[in-house]
Amino acid sequence: MGSITPNPKKRTYELPPGCKDLIHVLQGAPSKPSLGTVRVNGRIRARKVRVIGERGEQHGVMSLAEALQLARARSVDLVEIAPLAKPPICRMVDYGRFRYEQSRRRKSKT
Asked: Has this prediction a pTM greater than 0.90?
């Protein structure tokens, strides 16, 4: 393991690799997943998920395998939209369109 070493040129300390991530966590960096870390289809980790359809209809809580099968039957993707909920909430959408709409919303806020 590395240790904190002084850097005489900059009058600061050099941290070992991986410590910068820890500092961001301790400083209260946002824990919300960004658009780049959205889990889709096979990357969803939960065993059971609450599924919302393309038009907002509730399909209820089901196993991940059932939800993926339902999404494939409708030719859409299963996207985890609320990973911190119990159980996580997933929506059946076209992922390309979902990303486009999210980026448009983000641009319109600024």
From this structure: no
Amino acid, single-letter form, for residue 23: I
> pLDDT value at position 90?
95
Q: Which two tokens stand for residue 48?
A: 């059971």
79, with CB counted inside 10 A (0-12, 13-18, 19+), is buried
Bridge partners for 46 per DSSP:
none
To the nearest 10°, report the CA torsion of 58, 106, 101, 68.
-50
pLDDT tens string 15-57:
666 555 555 556 665 555 555 578 899 899 999 999 999 999 9
Calpha distance 109→27 (Å, rounded):
25
Give me the sheet containing 58-63, strands edge to edge: 58-63, 48-52, 89-93, 77-82
